[in-house]
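In full, the data:

***
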Amino acid sequence: MAEGSVSVAEVETSFKKFAIHGDTKATGKEMNGKNFAKLCKDCRVIDGKNVTATDVDIVFTKVKAKTARVIAFEQFSQALSELAPKRFKGKCQEEAVQQIYGLIAGREPANAGVTKVDKAAAVDRLTDTTKFTGAHKERFDESGKGKGKAGRVDIPDASGYVGAYKGKGTYEDKVKEA
């Protein structure tokens, strides 16, 4: 990592990306403890020796408001300045904060270990509706789209006066002929 100051805007951009990670209702202005821990892990603030996941949780609890469950960017900066001397021992406070900002700037949540969609031949074969036979074939139209209830259940035609009358709609024609 190059020495020099990292812009706070870059760190704030990373903060926003991690703040909305995994939460569809998040605005990006506040971050919960789980996402703060993820940021610290993904950006290697947690190194396992000097800074652990427990340290991160303790600092998060310390900087947030007593009843709050989230922190804003100001509290996030405060949390980083508390973690910085622990992570970079022997450095002055200002230098340690800059280095911790350097770890975070420009980063976004990693999706490591996320389940990938399996595209095996067996799955393709089992989900290809054109290869279905028997009763299962009736459940889909030519395009492979499901027919819904009409494909699963025989819906009786209860439109006529007599149950299974085949000449439905022909009465008017017979009356005209006579």
Notes: Residues 139 and 150 are 8 Å apart (CA to CA). The radius of gyration is 32 Å. The longest helix spans residues 73-87. The chain has a mean pLDDT of 81.
